[in-house]
């Protein structure tokens, strides 16, 4: 029987809760030896099994077995169709379901262009005409609602306010279709110059300064001609609404209830300005609609929608800071930081809804063009050895064919080089490589491995890094450890089938490792996901000064901020060739992309503020190299000592200590999470029944609701 690894602190707590309960170790069948069927090319399947959760009937077991048989058949058929008779995909029932991150290493968000748009000049007419001609020349899609050119202006009062302009511009670029609109700052001296009124679609007023009477008249004239206004904590108002100051609300975080266009409500926490709206009693109140109230005793109004004139003019005014992210605020407490970060995705949702209701397009911009791949190495000797190996392993055209992505090796970058999802050129000359997002020198300095991560395939934009290594990994000598790194991916998928782009600032990588079947790790392949998650966390927390950055692991394959928000994830696929597992490990985690959720550099900035330290922000190239370095050491320890060698370190950073869950369904029996077993499966202690392992293939672990829910 495998040993059961429990945390001492957890056992002590359990002893106090239920001292009379005798803990029992539930048996787990050893992994059957897997040998490929060389004659048929069928899919081999692991015999990994874990004791069923208490109360699971024979009917459920039978159902799972039938599903497994069906999966075997379909997998076998797939292998035959692709003609892959020389190697066999091992679908591990222990980890496949929980690791499917839908063709991407993490759920991610679309990339917003950081195009440097010039400020609006004094000669508005000529500048706008030039811009419009340029748009037409480039064939850019024109959104021309209300007959107005697609220009968005941001008014920030009498100050130059360059920093504030960039903040508001940045959030807009992440919400609207950046190919359809141009964003300018409307300076104080430009407000009274008429041309902007006829050449703009949306005016954003983002200043708490009083609006002068002359400027107010101009803004109303803009509305009368069908213009749209969005107010962010501004003093601008008109008609049936007035502003009332409430000093106790100023610069505080409060929960809002927002009414959406589909009549549903959404709750989120935002920083509020200290002002609220009050309706003025007039005969016609139909022009005023309340969109959001504070969830307080007074139900204060903080977002309103107003219409004006007969030409479609309308304004949405907010006294909640939808335009500010956490880095633009003076957040005082950890509670406020957590509330704002947890609401960050909803903030984007509400802001997009407002922009759409004002007639703007928030559809996904055009997917960026795929870029060539660069062959890089942290070691010149290994680089030359790889090129020598290539000579005998590509065709006369330099092509290395693969069913997923074929790679064509070329010495230098050619201007007419075609890059497609199925055929990508790989430039072998390292001297021509440069990237603003990845430093080979930084990677080299932080990679301290014997084998792993030595040969890099780097690209700015690719479909998914998981496919780049497929045509190389089975025949390449083991000492030439392969890794694929990208700045952005185009084939990540989000919830509900949405297509998302991985953002700049996220560490995206796929690493190849070879594991002997008859080894500690080869007999416990599901443990790889835990080792990688731990390696990501330790890549940060092993740096002197960064030990207390609150980065943690969540079973089975996530990286978290505390136990609150996901920062990244791990995807593992396994192929058994003779007596060696070829493992592709995809991992992605947020390093510097603060929006729309949270990133590692947010945690560092938070720590600096709380502790008075000056820790530097980290970069993706540094942390990918450190992750691979830590992972190689963890694998060595595991191969020598088994699970006991790494579990103390894993428990140090995991988020589940002493957590309660319900088994089987929402009304099921309560159990305590106590650890993971020899094969990496979650172990729980149910009162009166001892310790049992929970199979990830049959359960979806939802930390937020404290449930382990069987999948149907």
Automatic annotation (TrEMBL):
Gene3D superfamilies: Bira Bifunctional Protein, Domain 2. The lineage of its organism: Eukaryota, Metazoa, Chordata, Craniata, Vertebrata. GO terms for cellular component: cytoplasm. This is Biotin--protein ligase. Residues 17-86 are annotated as: Disordered. Belongs to the biotin--protein ligase family. Keywords: Ligase. Residues 22-45 have a biased composition (Polar residues). GO terms for molecular function: biotin--[biotin carboxyl-carrier protein] ligase activity. CDD domains: BPL. PANTHER family: BIOTIN PROTEIN LIGASE, BIOTIN--PROTEIN LIGASE. InterPro entries: aa-tRNA-synth_II/BPL/LPL (IPR045864), Biotin_CoA_COase_ligase (IPR004408), BPL_C (IPR003142), BPL_LPL_catalytic (IPR004143). It comes from Tauraco erythrolophus (Red-crested turaco). Residues 441-639 form the BPL/LPL catalytic domain. Residues 58-69 have a biased composition (Basic and acidic residues).
């Amino acid at each position: 029987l495998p040993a059961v690894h429990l945390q001492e602190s957890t056992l002590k707590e359990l002893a106090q809760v239920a001292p009379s309960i005798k803990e029992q170790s539930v048996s787990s069948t050893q992994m059957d030896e897997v040998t490929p069927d060389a004659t048929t090319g069928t899919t081999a399947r692991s015999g990994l099994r874990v004791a069923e959760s208490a109360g699971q009937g024979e009917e459920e077991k039978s159902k799972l077995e039938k599903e497994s048989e069906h999966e075997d058949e379909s997998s076998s058929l797939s292998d035959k169709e692709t003609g892959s008779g020389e190697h066999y995909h091992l679908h591990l029932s222990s980890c496949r379901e929980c690791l499917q991150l839908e063709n991407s290493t993490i759920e991610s968000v679309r990339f917003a262009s950081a195009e440097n748009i010039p400020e609006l000049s004094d000669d508005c007419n000529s500048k706008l005409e030039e811009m419009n001609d340029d748009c037409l020349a480039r064939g850019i899609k024109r959104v021309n609602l209300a007959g107005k050119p697609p220009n968005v202006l941001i008014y920030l009062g009498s100050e130059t306010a360059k920093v504030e302009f960039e903040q508001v511009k940045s959030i807009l670029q992440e919400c609207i279709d950046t190919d359809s609109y141009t964003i300018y700052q409307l300076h104080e001296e430009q407000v009274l110059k008429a041309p902007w009124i006829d050449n703009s679609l949306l005016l954003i007023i983002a200043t708490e300064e009083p609006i002068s009477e002359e400027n107010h008249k101009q803004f109303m004239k803009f509305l009368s001609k069908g213009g749209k206004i969005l107010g962010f904590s501004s003093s601008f108002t008109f008609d049936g609404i007035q502003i009332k100051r409430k000093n106790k609300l100023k610069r505080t975080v409060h929960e809002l209830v927002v009414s959406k266009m589909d009549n549903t409500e959404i709750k989120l926490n935002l920083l509020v300005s200290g002002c609220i709206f009050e309706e003025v009693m007039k005969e016609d109140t139909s022009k005023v609609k309340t969109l959001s109230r504070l969830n307080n005793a007074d139900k204060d109004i903080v977002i309103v929608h107003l219409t004006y004139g007969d030409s479609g003019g309308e304004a949405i005014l907010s006294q909640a800071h939808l335009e500010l992210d956490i880095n633009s605020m003076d957040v005082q407490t950890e509670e406020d930081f957590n509330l704002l970060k947890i609401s960050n995705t909803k903030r984007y949702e509400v802001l997009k809804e407002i922009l759409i209701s004002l007639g703007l397009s928030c559809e996904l911009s055009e997917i960026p063009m795929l870029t060539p791949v660069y062959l890089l190495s942290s070691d010149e000797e290994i680089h030359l050895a790889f090129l020598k190996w290539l000579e005998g392993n590509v065709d006369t055209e330099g092509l290395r064919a693969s069913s997923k992505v074929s790679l064509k090796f070329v010495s230098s970058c050619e201007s007419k080089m075609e890059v497609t999802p199925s055929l990508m050129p790989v430039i072998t000359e390292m001297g021509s490589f440069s990237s603003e997002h990845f430093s080979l020198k930084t990677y080299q300095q932080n990679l301290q491995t014997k084998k792993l991560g030595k040969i890099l395939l780097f690209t700015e934009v690719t479909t998914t890094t998981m496919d780049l290594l497929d045509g190389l990994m089975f025949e390449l000598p083991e000492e030439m450890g392969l890794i694929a790194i990208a700045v952005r991916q185009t084939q990540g998928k989000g919830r509900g089938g949405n297509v998302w782009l991985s953002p700049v600032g996220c560490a995206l990588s796929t690493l190849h490792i070879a594991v002997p079947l008859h080894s500690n790790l080869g007999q416990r392949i599901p443990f790889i996901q835990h080792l990688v998650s731990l390696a990501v966390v330790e890549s940060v927390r092993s740096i002197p000064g960064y030990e207390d950055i609150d980065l943690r692991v969540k079973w089975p394959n996530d990286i978290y901020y505390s136990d609150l928000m996901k920062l990244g994830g791990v995807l593992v696929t396994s192929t058994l060739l003779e007596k060696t597992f070829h493992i592709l490990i995809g991992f992605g985690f947020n390093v510097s992309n603060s929006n729309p959720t949270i990133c590692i550099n947010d945690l560092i900035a938070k720590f600096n503020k709380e502790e008075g330290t000056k820790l530097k922000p980290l970069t993706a190239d540094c942390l990918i190299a450190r992750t691979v370095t830590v992972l190689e050491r963890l694998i060595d320890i595991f191969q020598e000592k088994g699970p006991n060698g790494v579990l103390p370190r894993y428990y140090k950073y995991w988020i589940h200590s002493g957590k309660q869950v319900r088994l089987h369904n929402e009304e099921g029996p309560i159990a305590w999470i106590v650890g993971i077993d020899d094969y990496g499966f979650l172990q729980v202690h149910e009162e009166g029944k001892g310790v049992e392992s929970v199979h990830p293939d049959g359960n979806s672990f939802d930390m937020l609701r404290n449930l382990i829910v069987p999948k149907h």
